[in-house]
Amino acid sequence: MHFAALLWEPILVSAVFVFIASAISWTMLPFHNKEWKGLPNADQVREAIKAGSWSAGLYMFPFPPDAAARRSPEFMAKMAEGPTGMVTIMKPGKMNMGKTMVLSLIGNVVVSFFTAYVGWHALGNGVPYLTVFRVVGCVGFMAYAFGSLQDSIWFSVPWKTWCLRAVDALIFGMLMGGTFGWLWPR
User: Fold this and answer.
1) Exposed, middle or buried, 165 (CB in 10 Å: 0-12/13-18/19+)?
2) Is 180 exposed, middle or buried (0-12, 13-18, 19+ CB in 10 A)?
């Protein structure tokens, strides 16, 4: 944990910079606006979900309860016929933006902490700015971009969404690399 004592400042500062960049990306820039679509029959879908008494969680349809059902002709027919999908049901009520923002900032601190761990053990003390920038920026990019890659591979999240997240991740990685390079112990 010696690295954390030396790198606490770039860990926290980079987490704040990424938090600000993320907020700007999602609230002020136009490129995330078209990722989400409204359902044409949203009210009927909401009523069907209410009638089913679904609790908050992840759901898929059609849903095979086990491996045998997944191989059944009935399940295969439903998959071929469509529609198929995955749904996230959130708890009812107003979204708690304060809690969500705090959790986002904590997540950024965790990413910065582990990026610092890798950077410190790969580089050590007294390394030039550009070297720190390259290593920390790459690890930061990987942390923010590749975590969501499996969503596009396995869960049909559109590849365009992953590409937009990767653009965000590139910016976040560069901010991290720049911050760590600037505040790296010399």
Assistant:
1) buried
2) buried
Beta bridge partners of 59: 87
CA distance readout (Å), 78 to 44, 64, 75, 121: 21, 10, 5, 51
Q: What count of Cα atoms within 13 Å lies in the side-chain half-sphere of residue 23?
A: 14
Residues forming a β-bridge with 61: 85
pTM tops 0.90:
no
Calpha distance 28→22 (Å, rounded): 10
- pLDDT tens for 60-93 read 999 999 999 999 999 999 999 999 998 898 988 8
Paired tokens of 123: 């580089």
CA pair distance 150, 146, nearest whole angstrom: 8
3-state secondary structure of 60: strand
Alpha-helical runs (H) found in the chain: 2-27, 42-51, 67-70, 73-81, 97-123, 129-146, 149-154, 159-183
Rg over alpha carbons for the chain, rounded to the nearest Å, is 21
pLDDT 10s digits, 100-123: 999 999 999 999 999 999 999 999
